[in-house]
Design goal:
The protein is an alpha+beta fold. The protein folds into 4 domains: 18-125 and 461-502, no CATH class; 129-150 and 230-322 and 416-453, Nucleotidyltransferase, domain 5 (2-Layer Sandwich); 155-223; 326-402, no CATH class. The chain has helices at 18-21, 27-36, 40-46, 62-75, 80-89, 91-97, 104-114, 119-131, 159-182, 193-214, 254-257, 279-290, 306-314, 376-381, 385-388, 404-414, 417-423, 430-439, 451-478, and strands spanning 139-148, 156-157, 222-223, 230-233, 239-251, 262-270, 296-298, 318-320, 339-341, 346-348, 354-361, 369-373, 397-400. Strands 1, 4, 5, 6, 7 and 8 form a 6-stranded mixed sheet that branches. The chain has a 5-stranded antiparallel sheet with strand order 9-10-11-12-13, with no helix packed on it. A two-stranded antiparallel ribbon has the order 2-3. The longest helix is centred in the last third of the chain and has 28 residues, at 451-478. It is globular, with a radius of gyration of 30 Å. The two termini are 40 Å apart. 32% of the residues are buried.
Length: 505
């Protein structure tokens, strides 16, 4: 076939406008529509002055700066320098800014000043989707993912290593001070860079030692770069210095939305190494934002515990959640195989022997447990002793707590076909969500430091994720074969929720 002529000096008789170069259904247009519908009350909640100051040099329009950050988080551009480059040479960003070119300092100052308040935008995306009837609220799934922080594992130390580092730093400071005193030149007006860095390191090490000594660090280890970051175990068995990011996810109602998609209904970041303590708070957060409880919440075995089942029972919340020890239930001598008699307060083992209460067990941060044992001689003479008992001294011991009945009831519920069927939906909710966040939006590594700042970053990532989903609905409704943008009744959760989905096409 013939080859088209290549000419990099081609010109237009009438140059096109930036508006002509932007497709009508481009996601940048949806982001701009979302921001343009913010009311003055919304801007006040964000603590952003949209009118500017009549005095001084004109500044960039905050609507453009907010759009730049939202669209950047949607497309995986999350650093101010990369966004500065995009505002110079990418058409969507040029259109968003009206052909302005904010530099990275301007972009960063805006982000640093308002990112904590930007979490209000996440609430807005959730309430927009819910008020438009787009979300299937019957089933929600919660999960956590370990996200690497902006810190190196090599700078995570325990008390012993911190003390050694402090001693080496003190020696280095003494040596630098001695070198400065031996010189004949007058003392400099500022500390030499080497000495200033060493003194700064000493202060950070002292603060880290105080944190470890006070017991405020969950793992008795502190990272000198980001003191809030902790060692998090990943699925492949390794460790990263970072945070435990949580998300409660639901799917779109395909009938109402006209397309498939996922919506994050609640998002949080913690320093905890496991998920046990997050279930109740995530359920409450999703209920507060959506205005109603889910019919069923799905959670993996990392959330399973008696207190969590009690918390769900207190909230009248149905939960489908397998046990971490599910494989052990097949053991013929598992505690599940021992029958309990409430009248005599005894257990009967599979061989017909009685286990009676012999005492209690008190453990730190765990409720009291009651211990049941058979006579030692009976256990020793039992042919199943090796398979059943763990202690030759005491024989078989059963430990049961105040949540035992809930555990038994939930175990029976999880064995039903209905529970197994609905639990299979869990893989379709949080796991694809985390995949999109990490692969498409660049959330595999956090850029900020400190728990509060990381929370703001994760919530803005969740906001951008929801905007990606809402954009698909908006784009679908613009198609000629669709029913058109019908504005449903707006549901208010304390303030009106505009619907950019229903903007005129």
């Amino acid at each position: 076939m013939p080859i088209r002529a290549l000419s990099r000096g081609r010109t237009w008789l009438f140059p096109p406008t930036i508006e002509e170069l932007m497709p009508e259904d481009h996601p940048a247009r949806f982001v701009a529509a979302f921001v343009d519908e913010l009311s003055r009350a919304d801007w006040a909640r964000l603590r952003i002055a949209v009118d500017g100051d009549p005095l001084g040099t004109p500044g960039y329009d905050p609507r453009a700066l907010l759009c730049v950050w939202l669209f950047g988080f949607m497309t995986g551009l999350r650093s101010s320098r990369r966004l500065e480059a995009a505002c110079r040479d990418q058409i969507p960003f040029l259109w968003i800014t009206g052909w302005e070119h904010p530099d990275h300092n301007t972009l960063w100052r805006f982000y640093a000043a308002h990112r904590l308040e930007m979490r209000e935008l996440f609430r807005r995306t959730v309430r927009t989707a819910v008020s438009a009837g787009l979300v299937d609220l019957a089933v929600q799934a919660v999960d956590g993912t370990r996200v690497q922080g902006s810190a190196s594992r090599a700078r995570t130390h325990d008390a012993a290593h911190l003390q050694q580092l402090l001693e080496r730093t003190e020696a280095a400071i003494a040596d630098l001070e001695a070198q400065n005193e031996r010189g004949e030149d007058p003392p400099p007006p500022r500390l030499p860079k080497e000495l200033a860095r060493a003194q700064g390191l000493r202060e950070r090490v002292r603060a880290a030692i105080a944190e470890v000594d006070a017991g405020t660090s969950p793992q008795q280890q502190v990272n000198l770069t980001d003191p809030d970051a902790t060692l998090q175990k990943t699925r492949d068995g390794g460790y990263v210095v970072g945070y435990n990011a949580q998300a409660m996810v639901s799917s779109l109602d395909e009938t109402a939305a006209g397309t498939t998609g996922l919506v994050i209904l609640a998002a949080e970041v913690t320093t905890a190494a496991d998920d046990h303590g997050q279930l109740a708070s995530m359920i409450d957060a999703a209920r507060e934002l959506t205005g109603q409880a889910a019919d069923t919440v799905l959670a993996d075995a990392g959330y399973h515990s008696g207190p969590n089942l009690q918390a769900c029972a207190d909230r009248d919340q149905s939960v489908v959640m397998p046990e971490a020890q599910a494989k052990k239930l097949a053991d013929p001598y598992h505690k599940q195989a021992f029958r309990y008699d409430e009248e005599s307060d005894t257990f009967t083992c599979p061989k017909g022997q009685k286990l009676r209460q012999v005492g209690t067990n008190r453990r730190k941060r765990r409720p009291i447990a009651w211990l049941y044992r058979a006579d030692r001689g009976v256990c020793a003479a039992c042919p199943a002793f090796e398979a059943c008992a763990k202690s030759r001294r005491h024989g078989r011991t059963i430990e049961t707590g105040p949540d035992e009945r809930l555990l038994q009831k939930h175990r029976a519920w999880m064995a039903t076909p209905e529970a197994k069927k609905v639990y299979r939906r869990r893989k379709q909710l949080p796991e694809p969500t985390f995949g999109i966040l990490k692969e498409r939006q660049g959330a595999g590594r956090l850029l900020l430091r400190g728990l509060e700042q990381v929370r703001a970053e994760w919530l803005l990532l969740a906001t951008a994720f929801n905007l990606r989903t809402l954009y698909q609905v908006w784009r679908r409704r613009r198609k000629p074969d669709s029913a058109g943008p019908v504005a449903p009744e707006r549901v208010s959760q304390g303030y009106p929720v505009p619907l950019p989905l229903a903007l005129p096409c």
